[in-house]
Design goal:
This protein is an alpha+beta fold. The protein contains eight helices and 15 strands. The strands form two sheets. Strands 7, 8, 9, 10, 11, 12, 13, 14 and 15 form a nine-stranded mixed β-sheet that branches. The protein has a six-stranded antiparallel β-sheet with strand order 2-1-6-5-3-4. The protein is globular and about 55 Å long. The protein binds 4'-deoxy-4'-aminopyridoxal-5'-phosphate.
Length: 290
């Protein structure tokens, strides 16, 4: 995704100060750059309000704790900073990227003695996938890369380093003519796409994989609530690829992707059906009322 030109005129919050975009560069010697010690959040602003802002600030802290990074700003301070920056930038609808990374005081695998920095950026970003795909669904290609076991990588942290397999997977899918990758986990169960959770519909009932080795997305949790409130039965369970291919409908959920139908996985096609449309509608309705 190319950043819009307009991002260069936005304000950035960096370690407690609001700065211009141009004043926020990093030195090349930086622990995060060399060893992947960065955690981040992606959030969306709808009508001037950040959706589930507190949950995102809490997850940033949780992600950092898992990597033994002590954030120098509390959840409340991060919340206040996001609001101030939103006000300074004056956006009604935007994407927010809040992140924390280790500085360049030390260089080596051990991070002892490295500072922890926090920044918040935001820009106008209407849609992760082209808008027309919300009607006909995106295509996924099964990746050869697997989501690792929770004792192989810190899978419950939204850690930048973990995205290496997502980037490899998505880039291969796009090269092969698909929009994104379907990722299986280390056991061979269906996990998620490169950057969003997955739901399937079978006989009017919703199913979603148990998030025991990938993020339990905030949008995923919201959609589970929406399904329950709309009388749609929902079950979390391990799903094998064969079962997924027998689904009536499939969709993805994520802050960036929102609710996006899947129209094809590998060579199998899926309809954008009634349950997906009901969930999309309920989600869109919720976003205008937050
Ligand atoms: N899985 C991955 C790998 C992601 O990057 C995201 C986006 N943060 C999600 C799932 C969905 O999470 P959320 O709904 O909290 O945005």
């Amino acid at each position: 995704m190319l950043l819009p030109e307009s991002v260069h005129t936005t304000k950035v919050w960096l370690n407690g100060e609001v700065k211009s975009w141009a004043d926020c560069s990093l030195h090349i010697i930086n622990h995060s750059l060399h060893y992947g010690s960065c955690v981040f959040e992606g959030e969306r602003v709808y009508n001037g309000k950040i959706f589930k802002s507190l949950e995102h600030a809490e997850r940033l802290h949780k992600s950092a704790n898992i990597l033994n990074m002590q954030l120098p700003f509390s959840i409340e301070q991060i919340e206040a900073a996001k609001l101030k920056l939103l006000d300074d930038n004056g956006f009604d609808n935007a994407y927010v990227r809040c992140f924390a990374w280790r500085g360049g005081e030390v260089m080596g695998i051990s991070a002892q003695g490295a500072s922890v920095n926090v920044a918040i950026t935001m820009w106008e970003w209407p849609s992760y996938f082209p808008a027309e795909l919300k009607e006909k669904g995106i295509s996924l290609k099964t990746s050869k890369w697997r989501k690792p076991a929770p004792d192989t990588a810190p899978t419950q942290s939204k850690a930048a380093g973990l995205y290496m397999i997502g980037t490899l997977s998505k880039d291969q899918s796009v090269k092969d003519g698909y929009h994104d990758a379907l990722m299986l986990d280390y056991r061979g169960y269906v996990a998620e796409s490169s950057g969003a959770n997955l739901f399937m519909v079978k006989d009017g009932k919703l199913f979603t994989p148990i998030p025991d080795c990938f993020l339990n997305g905030i949008t995923r949790q919201t959609v589970i609530e929406l399904a329950k409130n709309n009388g749609i039965e929902i079950e979390e369970k391990h799903i094998l690829p064969d079962e997924l291919m027998q689904a009536d409908e499939i969709f993805l959920t994520g802050t960036a992707a929102e609710v996006t139908p899947v129209g094809k996985i590998d060579n199998t096609e899926f309809q954008v059906g009634e349950v997906t449309c009901r969930i999309m509608e309920a989600y869109n309705k919720l976003m205008v009322t937050i």
